[in-house]
Amino acid sequence: MKLIVKCSGGTKKRLADLEERQKALQIEITQKQITSSINRVVEDVNHRFTFKVLTRDFISHDLGISARNLRNDRQNSNDILDRVDKKEFTERLKNLLEIRNAK
User: Fold this and answer.
1) Residue 77 — φ and ψ, nearest 5°?
2) What is the pLDDT of residues 55-72, one digit of tens each?
3) How many whole angstroms separate alpha carbon 95 and alpha carbon 91?
4) Would you give the DSSP letter of residue 13?
5) CA proximity to 90, closest of 59, 45, 54, 50
6) On the CB side of 91, how many CA atoms lie within 13 Å of its CA?
7) 98: left (phi over 0), alpha (psi -120 to 50) or beta
8) Number of alpha carbons in the 13 Å side-chain half-sphere of residue 28
9) Taking a C-beta distance cutoff of 8 angstroms, is the pair 78, 71 a contact?
10) What is the pLDDT of residues 81-100, one digit of tens each?
């Protein structure tokens, strides 16, 4: 809805300036709202990722990788780590690293 007002040239100029400022402010507010919404989405994704990382069970691949590396060693291959109790190893590693599962 447009308001039609009869006025002098200087007043028309001021009204036009006010309209331009209003449009600029609306655009600025819209841009800030979009930026704020994007930031909230990114923050939500970060929170979900952090929660997932902190609540999942600890799984160590160190023993398996080390065992494979020892088996595949060209000069001194051995299978000593294949004979290690993996559950006990993982529990000790968790204790040393102070890792506590949610369970």
Assistant:
1) -75, 145
2) 777 777 888 888 889 889
3) 6
4) H
5) 59
6) 5
7) left
8) 6
9) yes
10) 888 888 888 888 888 888 77
The 3-state secondary structure of 29-82, one letter per residue: HHHHHHHHHHHHHHHHHHHHHHHHHHHCCCCCCHHHHHHHHHHCCCCCCCCHHH
Q: Which two tokens stand for residue 90?
A: 């993982």
* Token output for 95: 């204790």
Give me 91's structure tokens. 């529990």
Type and span of the H or E element at 9: helix 9-55
Name the token pair of 49.
Answer: 């990722």
What is d(CA 47, CA 42) in angstroms, rounded to the nearest whole number? 9
- In whole angstroms, what is the distance from residue 5 CA to residue 47 CA? 54
Tokens of 103: 């369970």
22: its two tokens: 């209003």
